[in-house]
Amino acid sequence: MTDRTYRELRARLDSGEASCSALVEESLDAIHGAKDLNAVLSTFDDRARRQAARVDAALRSGAAGPLAGTTVVVKDNIAVEGEPLTCGSRILEGFRSLYSSTAVERLEAAGAIVVARANMDEFAMGSSNETSTYGPVHHPLDPERVPGGSSGGSGVAVAAGLCHASLGSETGGSVRQPAGFLGLVGVKPTYGRVSRYGLVAFASSLDQIGPFTHTVQDAARVLGAIAGHDPNDATTSTRPVPDYAALCENYDLRGVRVGLPVEYRSDDLHPSVAGAMEETEARLRDAGATLHEVHLPHTRYAIPTYYVISTAEASSNLARFDGARYGRRSPDATTLDEMYEMSRSEGFGAEVKRRIMLGTFVLSSGYYDAYYRKAQQVRAILRREMTEAFGSVDLLLTPTAPTPAFKLGEKTADPIAMYLSDIFTAAANLTGIPALSIPAGNDPESGLPVGIQLMAPAFEEERMFGAAAALERVAV
Questions:
Q1: Are 69 and 47 in contact (CB under 8 A)?
Q2: What pLDDT does 3 receive?
Q3: What is residue 313's three-state secondary structure?
Q4: Structural domain includes residue 24
Q5: Strand partners, 438
Q6: Helices then strands (H, E): number in the chain?
């Protein structure tokens, strides 16, 4: 897409230089021309064209919404009525959603146009977008590299210019990590800020929908459109949603207290990531922010805690995919027991099976107290430590990922190494706080992007967006 910011796009629409119908055709053509990236699984041609016609009419009448004309790709675990919904898995092949998610409905009410569904790690389980039954997604700058996961397809759709914005989902960093690898803004909102209605669950207490965009203000604009209470999701907050996009304007970093977690320092950081952190710290100081060391001693347990809790919840949530009600049913099964066993064995991939087995184990008799209960206790400690840290600072600054994008196949044989890709992101999901990744330069050797992460207290997205937008301005 030729417009990198919504402000540019809206100016062209309001002047008559562009139309929503033309933008949809441009997006669809770009998607079909980028099949080698394997980022998009299918397009919603008829739906997108109908919505484009409605938004064009609204623009002519002066009643267009705040996202009018924004083309959007959504992750394949976010429901769009009448369209395929497979979660990147063979077990849901042929399934079409009976309704749209609240996030999609709110996007369309704001004038956005949902044009396609994005490839993803199977059931959002992965950090590289290599576990999809439809094959891996490729990094647009280097096809031999991963784009990050599990929302890599959504990220690539924006990075490669196939759409203006996209939606992914977060369980342990699955929007922020791809955003860091792709040079995008990626947001994980406060738990309960965005409805999960219509999002296929991986781990219900961790999952959140979040946007990818090129700029902080556009991410704020998209989040503002989809956020808010939803009677279909009892976990959503009734707190009013601020105008995040407006709060990005002219945010002053002077006096803002930024915390640097001591435990996140590591000699194992890639040099380009360490360099990006140093440069960001210098920009913050130059802009008048103050930097302070903070201690989060239990964050070293975030990854094992995350994988105990998330696999336990996945084991429960994925029990519904059994071949009995919807999705794939094994054609070779002759008894009820065979139908359950063979449908799940044939339908789920290796990583999903691994996590279901882990989750079933930690919930089993004799191990529940040793693993699951202990993980919940550590999660409570992590929440307390985050709350204490935000008593003395306004934001936390960390890397998004320990390295730039790694090569396809580099970590697939070592699940633990793959899991550690989320070492800086998982704590925000465990504690429910908002976090975002913003671009922070490029690795001088490979030219690949590097991201840094800002985290804020729960429901303080405006503080996070404001500081990120200010950093974005001083980086230009």
A1: no
A2: 81
A3: helix
A4: yes
A5: 452
A6: 16, 11
Residue 206: closest CA among 437, 435, 454: 435
Contact 69, 53 (CB under 8 A): no
* Whole-number pLDDT of residue 419: 73
C-alpha distances in Å from residue 338, one per residue of 93, 321, 334, 348, 354 = 19, 14, 6, 15, 20
403 falls within a domain = no
Beta bridge partners, 397, equal 454
Asked if the structure places residue 180 within a domain, the reply is yes
β-pair type (435-442, 290-294): unpaired
Q: What is the DSSP string of 343-411?
A: HHHHHS-HHHHHHHHHHHHHHSTTTIIIIIIHHHHHHHHHHHHHHHHTTT-SEEEEESSSSSPPBTTSS
Token pair 């998004």: residue: 400
At position 253, the amino acid (one-letter code) is L
Residue 472 belongs to what H/E stretch? Answer: helix 461-475
Beta bridge partners of 455: 396, 435
Q: What are phi and psi of 194, to 5 degrees?
A: -125, 135
| Amino acid identity at 292 | H
Residue environment code for 238-247, b if the CB has 16+ CB neighbours within 10 A, otherwise e: eeebbebbeb
d(CA 348, CA 198) in angstroms, rounded, equals: 21
State which residues of the chain have pLDDT below 50.
Answer: none
| pLDDT attached to residue 475 | 77
Which candidate, 24, 342, 256, places its Cα nearest to that of 162?
24
Residue 29 lies in domain? 6-247
d(CA 97, CA 81): 5
**Angle, CA 365 vertex, CA 362 and CA 368 arms, to 5°:** 40
CA distance 277 to 281: 6
**Active site (catalytic) residues:** 75, 150, 174
User: What is the predicted pLDDT for the residue at 476?
Assistant: 56
Angle, helices 461-475 vs 271-286, to 10°: value is 100
Q: Report angle CA 228, 230, 233 to the nearest 5 degrees.
A: 120
Is-above-0.90 flag for pTM? yes
C-alpha of 74 from chain center:
10
Cβ(224)–Cβ(244) below 8 Å: yes
| Distance set, CA 147 to CA 47, 55, 138, 178, 224 (Å) | 28, 32, 6, 6, 26
pLDDT of residue 365: 86
CATH code of the domain covering residue 51: 3.90.1300.10
Within a domain: residue 143?
yes
For the beta carbon of residue 342, count every other beta carbon within 10 angstroms: 18
- Overall domain count for the chain: 1
Amino acid letter at 118? A
